[in-house]
Amino acid sequence: MTVASAPRILRTVQQVRQWRLDCLLNRESVGFIPTMGALHAGHCSLIAESLKQNDHTMVSIFVNPSQFAPHEDLDAYPRTVDSDMDQLTKAFTKKQVSAVFIPKVSEMYPSGIELEVSKQRGAFVTVHGCSEQLEGGSRPQFFRGVATVVSKLLNVVTPEKVYFGQKDAQQCVVIRNLVKDMLINTEVVVLPTLRESSGLAMSSRNAYLSEEAKSESSVIYRALKAGESFYDEHSKDGEAVDAYLISNEIRNVLSTAPSGFKLEYLSISHPETLDDLTTVKPGIGALISTAVRVPREDGQETRLIDNIVLK
């Protein structure tokens, strides 16, 4: 029986750059999956695709402080590096992840990092026009933090391809615009959302929920699918569909959620610009996205996001 070898762990920017230089000298391609750890099957699906498409695959594990506001759950965010490494070693048998970048905060933010934006010093990246709405409406510094850390990681790793999941739809739009506007020579690959058998989108935040709460949270996907079905039925002849009516179908299903579920937002927007739509036209389609706060056994709430794409 062959024992899987563990990926090489790199801790510093210099180590990553030396590893990447060796790949370049050998004319070997690199695929990259940036993560905040707490790896699940959704991450593994991204990694599996990278392993198919590239000579080498690198994964980063870094809980990025700049995308958390002072009142958010940075300290509570799950940090499971040991189990993550165990999973990376055992989950892939035919081909292994080549390297894992696990930097300290000081490595990624050499000027230091404060959670309060007004106290921050150093360089930060903002992608205007697609960062302010949806998730950005309630978390104004979130995509500034995402764009900043992804810029840093792509600058260090310089991969041929970087992989993200459709679950984080707005993040994908932000990063595509970032890569285009900053002239970064990396292809952004977006793969479909991986879901649990109930339909619940896989997320590291699901770890906060009990099995009962996860089962109940499947109502989010059922609601989105109801909106999709309404659109498919009413767009058969190529006619535009009223976004308000699609929204009503979704809200009707969400209204059946257990007590304590709170709809934070429901948006039907252009799939590329994220502008709000009044009608959805076949061939252009729309991104339907939502955030729902789900009660936990400890009295706190977990914020779940999900989306579905209309064609």
UniProtKB/TrEMBL annotation:
Task: Please name the pathway.
Answer: Cofactor biosynthesis; (R)-pantothenate biosynthesis; (R)-pantothenate from (R)-pantoate and beta-alanine: step 1/1
Reactions listed under catalytic activity: (R)-pantoate + beta-alanine + ATP = (R)-pantothenate + AMP + diphosphate + H(+)
The UniProt keywords, alphabetically, are: ATP-binding, Ligase, Nucleotide-binding, Pantothenate biosynthesis
Q: Name one GO molecular function term.
A: ligase activity
Q: Does the keyword Cell inner membrane apply?
A: no
Task: Show the Pfam families listed in the entry.
Answer: Pantoate_ligase
EC id: 6.3.2.1
Q: What class of enzyme is it?
A: ligase
Q: Does the keyword Cytoplasm apply?
A: no
Concerning InterPro entries, the annotation shows:
Cyt_trans-like, Pantoate_ligase, Pantoate_ligase_C, Rossmann-like_a/b/a_fold
Cross-referenced HAMAP family, in alphabetical order? PanC
Q: Which family does it belong to?
A: Belongs to the pantothenate synthetase family.
Q: Per its record, how is this protein called by name?
A: Pantoate--beta-alanine ligase
- Give the source species: [Candida] anglica
